[in-house]
């Protein structure tokens, strides 16, 4: 490319927008063509708007050394390189657990190479050869997609690991109750309750409580479970205490903080459970010590050290008098420090200090986030009268970090739900058994012509919009769904909007249940699918017209072709002696060509019928079926057809299987050019599919024709036209793909060809 043309290309080069996931992507490009390396670097960095940094490497053997020097987000490699090809390089990387996204960019677009690359762990396989801009635009898009996917996977693993560590290491028990059953509990929960996970997970929580909650507290606890979030006012979460018998019948005091959440798409109750037995025991012990006039200091310290919460005592001069073991483990030894030094690393009292209020006789409750450990504490400050008449401040620390995180997560979940409702390109609704709705939001006016208030107020009932021809079916389906045990359903129907316009609607609904575990109503969405339905109807019309056209063509062409063939044969029979040898050859050529045209017409008709034939799935023993196919084919005596492996039993349409094998075997028989022909049929079981092969020792096919032979009317010019119509293999491809498989070819000139195809298991 000369300087002027290069400049024009650069001026006209269209840029490709990069998204926020693809910022600062480093690309290692490996190719043995130096000019292509330079062009790729220019286009990617230019079209990527500076977001892509490309490092070029002409020798693939230097890849590992380069990766040790710098981390890259993605590797783009050629397939054919002199020292090591792209697949070998990929295998070496994956063998050494290098998981960087790997994209093969090559001019060799063989399907089996692409399959091999993907099996080895390649993320993309892109063929060169399209126009320059489109090629690099596709490459940039592939790079962005794979890097985004990789970064998203890494972020998800990190998030899951953090959640796992949180659940395993916190001392607060976390549980989730959904539809009246315990569906989740962390290790601390099962340790606090005293029951192993396998014994109580999945049990009915009401029945479980009846057995293990103290009889005097049972009614109160069941009431709290039923109330759920009714007490969640002004940001407060329901919090209560009760007595509990563990598995070994040990009585414990439990404090529960509960919050309604959405868990796996359904409403649930999240509970944070704290064993406050030590605290209760401390309170009881303290009361007993006061009643019996025991040594206050000795017993008081013992009690505070047995508590699960942190406790410390400070006097009016900010001098720490006591720190229990919980706080010592968290903040270390006080070593005679004043409270503002110990907790805040300050040199003077804190502006937010509550001492002034406490020393006037008030109890204060507040929250504090420690800058030392980033934990959030619920603090209770209360006056403590000493035996000598002085007053100190006792402060209880309760770590509520997990509860705050749960609240933040809930707020985020609610924010996402509101965002979904506001941006949903349809209608989201919530309705009840009395047909009232309290949520009807989205593109209401665009779809129905009415406003949200029309439906919420009851002025308009949505059912009134359903097309008269559909209303009976919809009412029947709704009645059946409500009475069934199914949780969800979906359907399609028509509505007529306020202006008389017809809309096709896709409706999805899901039941929800009340505290009594009875159906309270449904959530659902309504989406306008009119454009899609119109497209489907147009496609059906077009397909039907094409099928009718093929049938008419087949019918109207075959009669004239038969007449031509008969007429020429009569001339040859009646006037053959009067014709020259050249004339006879020409007439024989006409017979040959009309016979070939008749085969083409039959092929067209068979190809057009494939989509119209209703599939009838049956269990077929392919060993028996192939034996019948071979008998019907009746190959010449010089050609041997053998089945070399056991064939499976498949659930598939019998006609489809017969046509697939018949066309492949007939194709092999027609073109074998050896005195002794061999055709072998094999089958290999894979994880999710069966791989079949039909191999012959015929003339073979050049690689450049591998894809062409499966296209209709693409019989190779080098073949005898009287043998092939170019339709049989097209029928094979269409039938294999209709049944969820793929078909491909491997061949060596003068040695033979092998046709492979797959069919799913089951």
Which short descriptors sum up this protein?
alpha+beta; single chain; 762 residues; five-stranded parallel β-sheet
Average pLDDT figure: 81
The count of strands amounts to: 27
What radius of gyration results from the CA coordinates?
39 Å
Assembly category = single chain
Structural class: alpha+beta
Outline, from the CA principal axes? elongated
Helix-residue proportion: 40-55%
β-sheet strand percentage: 15-25%
Distance between the termini: 56 Å
Q: Which strand order do you get reading across the main beta sheet?
A: 2-1-3-4-5
Continuous helix count: 24
Biggest β-sheet, characterized? 5 strands, parallel
Give an overview of the whole structure:
- The chain is of the alpha+beta class and 762 residues long.
- A hairpin with a 4-residue loop joins strand 16 and strand 17 (437-442).
- Mean pLDDT is 81; it is low at 1-22 and 717-722.
Outline the secondary-structure elements.
Elements: H1 3-12, E1 25-30, H2 34-47, E2 52-57, H3 63-69, E3 74-77, H4 86-95, E4 102-106, H5 111-120, E5 124-127, H6 132-169, E6 173-178, E7 181-185, H7 187-193, H8 197-200, H9 205-212, H10 215-227, E8 239-245, E9 251-263, E10 266-275, H11 277-292, H12 296-305, E11 310-314, E12 320-323, H13 325-331, H14 339-344, H15 355-358, E13 364-369, E14 376-385, E15 391-399, H16 401-423, E16 427-432, E17 437-442, H17 444-448, H18 452-456, H19 468-483, E18 488-496, E19 502-513, E20 519-528, H20 530-575, H21 581-609, E21 617-621, H22 622-633, E22 639-643, E23 649-653, H23 654-671, E24 677-685, E25 689-696, H24 728-738, E26 743-748, E27 752-760
Parallel strand pairs: 1-2, 1-3, 3-4, 4-5, 22-24
Antiparallel strand pairs: 6-7, 6-10, 8-9, 9-10, 11-12, 11-15, 13-14, 14-15, 16-17, 16-20, 18-19, 19-20, 21-23, 24-25, 25-27, 26-27
């Amino acid at each position: 490319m000369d300087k002027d043309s290069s400049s024009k290309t650069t001026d006209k080069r269209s840029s490709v927008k990069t998204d926020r996931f693809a910022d600062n992507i480093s690309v290692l490009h490996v190719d043995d063509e130096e000019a292509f390396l330079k062009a790729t670097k220019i286009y990617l960095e230019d079209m990527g708007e500076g977001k892509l940094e490309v490092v070029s490497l002409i020798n693939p053997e230097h890849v590992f050394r380069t990766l040790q020097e710098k981390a890259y987000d993605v590797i783009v490699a050629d397939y054919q390189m002199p020292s090591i090809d792209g697949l070998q390089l990929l295998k070496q990387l994956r063998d050494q657990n290098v998981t960087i996204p790997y994209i093969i960019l090559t001019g060799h677009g063989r399907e089996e190479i692409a399959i091999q690359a993907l099996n080895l762990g390649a993320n993309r396989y892109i063929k060169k050869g399209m126009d320059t801009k489109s090629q690099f635009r596709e490459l940039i898009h592939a790079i962005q997609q794979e890097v985004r996917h990789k970064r998203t996977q890494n972020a998800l693993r990190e998030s899951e690991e953090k959640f796992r560590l949180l659940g395993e290491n916190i001392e607060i028990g976390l549980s989730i109750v959904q539809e009246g059953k315990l569906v989740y509990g962390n290790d601390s929960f099962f340790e606090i309750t005293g029951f192993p996970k396998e014994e109580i997970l999945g049990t009915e929580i009401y029945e479980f409580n009846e057995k293990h909650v103290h009889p005097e507290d049972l009614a109160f606890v069941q009431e709290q479970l039923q109330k759920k979030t009714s007490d969640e006012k002004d940001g407060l979460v329901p919090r209560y205490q009760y007595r509990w018998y563990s598995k070994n019948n040990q009585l414990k005091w439990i404090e529960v903080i509960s919050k309604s959440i959405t868990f796996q798409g359904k409403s649930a109750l999240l509970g944070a459970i704290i064993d406050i037995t030590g605290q209760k025991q401390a309170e009881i012990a303290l009361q007993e010590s006061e009643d019996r006039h025991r040594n206050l200091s000795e017993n008081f310290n013992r009690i505070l050290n047995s508590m699960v919460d942190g406790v410390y005592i400070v006097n009016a001069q900010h001098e720490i008098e006591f720190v229990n073991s919980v706080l010592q483990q968290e903040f270390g030894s006080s070593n005679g420090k004043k409270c503002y030094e110990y907790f805040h690393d300050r040199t003077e009292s804190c502006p937010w200090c509550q001492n002034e209020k406490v020393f006037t006789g008030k109890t204060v409750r507040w929250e504090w986030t420690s800058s030392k450990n980033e934990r959030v504490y619920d603090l209770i400050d209360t006056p403590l009268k000493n035996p000598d008449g002085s007053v100190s401040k006792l402060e209880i620390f309760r770590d509520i970090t997990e509860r705050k995180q749960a609240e933040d997560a809930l707020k985020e979940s609610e924010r996402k739900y509101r965002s979904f409702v506001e941006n949903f390109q349809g209608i989201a609704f919530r309705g009840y058994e009395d047909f009232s709705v309290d949520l009807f939001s989205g593109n209401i006016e665009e779809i129905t012509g009415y406003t949200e208030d029309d439906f919420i107020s009851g002025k308009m009932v949505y059912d009134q919009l359903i097309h008269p021809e559909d209303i009976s079916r919809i009412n029947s389906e709704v009645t059946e769904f409500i009475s069934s045990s199914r949780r969800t359903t979906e359907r399609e129907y028509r509505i007529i909007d306020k202006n008389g316009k017809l809309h096709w609607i896709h409706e999805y609904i899901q039941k929800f249940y009340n505290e009594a575990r009875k159906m309270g109503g449904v959530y659902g969405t309504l989406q306008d699918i009119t454009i899609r339905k119109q497209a489907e109807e147009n496609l059906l019309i077009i397909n039907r017209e094409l099928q009718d056209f093929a049938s008419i063509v087949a019918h109207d062409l075959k009669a004239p072709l038969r007449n031509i063939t008969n007429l020429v044969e009569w001339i040859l029979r009646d006037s053959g002696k009067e014709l020259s040898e050249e004339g006879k050859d020409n007439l024989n050529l006409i017979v040959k060509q009309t016979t070939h045209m008749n085969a083409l017409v039959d092929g067209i008709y068979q190809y057009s019928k494939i989509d119209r034939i209703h599939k009838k799935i049956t269990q077929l023993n392919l060993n028996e079926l192939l034996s019948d196919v071979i008998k019907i084919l009746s190959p010449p005596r010089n050609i041997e057809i053998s089945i070399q492996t056991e064939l499976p039993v498949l659930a598939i349409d019998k006609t489809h299987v017969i046509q697939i094998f018949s066309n492949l075997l007939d194709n092999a028989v027609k073109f074998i050019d050896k005195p002794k022909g061999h055709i072998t049929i094999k089958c290999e079981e894979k994880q999710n599919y069966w791989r079949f092969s039909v191999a012959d020792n015929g003339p073979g096919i050049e690689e450049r024709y591998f894809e062409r032979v499966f296209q209709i009317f693409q019989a190779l010019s080098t073949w005898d036209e009287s043998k092939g119509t170019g339709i049989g293999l097209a029928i094979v491809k269409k039938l294999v793909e209709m049944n969820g498989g793929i078909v491909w070819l491997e061949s060596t000139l003068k040695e033979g060809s092998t046709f492979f195809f797959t069919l799913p298991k089951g």
